[in-house]
Amino acid sequence: MWDMKTLMEETQNLIGLSLTPYQISQLKRYRQELEIWNERYSLTAIHDPEKVRVKHFLDSFSCYLAMENTAIENLIDVGSGPGFPGIPLKILLPELKVTLVDSVRKKTDFCQHIIDVLNLEGIVVKRERAERLANDPRYREKYDWAVARAVAHLSELSEYLIPFVRLGGRMLAMKGDSGPAEAHEASEAIKLLGGELSRVRHLTLPGVAENRYLVVVEKKASTPDRFPRRVGIPQKRPL
């Protein structure tokens, strides 16, 4: 079992921020609860403690590398699963308002459990499809950042995320080796949705051989009302 000192050091090295003892205690409880729930419900394919530290917690913190020096008051995490990256980002940045979105009950139930256990405020969970939620005026074009990790190809993912982003806000897709190629292939879809590719940042996580990329899209124009299309269509017929 890894100790939290390792995560503290890796976080400092990766993003230049220091975790407080209280944040460490929150992350420790989060890890413990994830282990318990994983045994019952198999929330994530990653069970090894070392991989949880790097591929869940540290990977979530890496979003800050794209977000620093931007407006970041509120964020929506689409396809959040058991809370990554939204809950670690909320722990890292306590003033951040976060909306977690997933369509799978066991995952949203776990996220709500963690929110309750850690007494987190300014964070809500929605069990809904992104295509429906993005057409709700309470959520459409309301966020500084819309984030997703390992959800879909970028052309499909852009249709889920960009409608949530306010003008001047940004979308962040967390990608593996395919990141640069997907960014190129999705350029027309991104433009159609009101976005413009801003940055593809490479990063390396400790002990992880594969490349990681943060693909950032800035919202330049309002997303046309016809997007996102109805549930299932972005997946079946990507832009």
List the helices and strands and how they pair.
Elements: H1 4-15, H2 21-41, H3 49-61, H4 64-67, E1 74-78, H5 86-92, E2 97-102, H6 105-117, E3 123-127, H7 130-133, E4 143-149, H8 154-161, E5 165-175, H9 179-185, H10 187-192, E6 195-203, E7 212-219, H11 233-236
Parallel strand pairs: 1-2, 1-4, 2-3, 4-5
Antiparallel strand pairs: 5-7, 6-7
Helix pairs in contact: 1-3, 2-6
CATH topology: Rossmann fold
The 3D shape can be described as globular
Compressed to H and E, one letter per element, the order equals HHHHEHEHEHEHEHHEEH
Helicity range = 40-55%
CATH homology superfamily name: Vaccinia Virus protein VP39
The SS-based structural class is alpha/beta
CATH architectural type: 3-Layer(aba) Sandwich
For the termini, the CA-CA separation is 44 Å
Q: What is the count of DSSP helices, taking H or I runs of 4+ residues?
A: 11
Largest sheet, in brief, is: 7 strands, mixed
User: Spatial order of the strands in the main sheet?
Assistant: 3-2-1-4-5-7-6
Summarize the structure.
The protein is α/β, with parallel strands linked by helices and 239 residues long.
Protein traits:
11 helices, single chain, 21% strand, alpha/beta, 239 residues, Rossmann fold, seven-stranded mixed beta sheet
Q: What do these coordinates show?
A:
The structure is a single chain. It contains eleven helices and seven strands. The chain is of the alpha/beta class and 239 residues long. The protein has one domain (4-236): Rossmann fold, CATH 3.40.50.150. Strands 3-2-1-4-5-7-6 form a seven-stranded mixed sheet, with helices on both faces. α5 links the parallel β1 and β2. α1 (4-15) packs parallel to α3 (49-61) and α2 packs antiparallel against α6. The radius of gyration is 17 Å and the shape is globular. The model has no long low-confidence stretch (mean pLDDT 94).
